User: What shape does this take?
Amino acid sequence: MITIHLKYEIDPDRVEDFAEYGRRWITLVNRFGGVHHGYFLPSEGDNDIAYALFTFPDFASYERYRKQSAEDPESRAALDLARTTRCIRRYERRFLTPLDHPETPWTQAPGA
Assistant: This one.
C-alpha cells in the first residue's frame, strides 16, 4: 500500500479555485482506482498551505493512475483550472507506507 501526501503552497486569494481543483481530483483519483482521503484547506495559521492524501494498493497502481490521468480529458481540465487560475504556487509530493499495513517490515514483531 502506498499513500501519497501532497503539500501545496496556494494563493490565499484563490482558495475557492483550489477547492474546485480538489473536488475534481477527489473524484478522479477514486475513479482511477485510488482512495482519496481528502483535501485539507487552510483554516487557522498559515493561509497559503493545503494538503491532500490518497492511497493506492501499490506503487504499480499509482503509476497506472499517473499514465491514465495524463490521457484523461477531465484530468487535463482539472490541471488547466489550476494553471489558468494560478491557485497553486508550488507543491511537494511524498510517498508513505502506513505503519499498520501487514506488508510493512517495521510492523512485524522483532524476530518474526
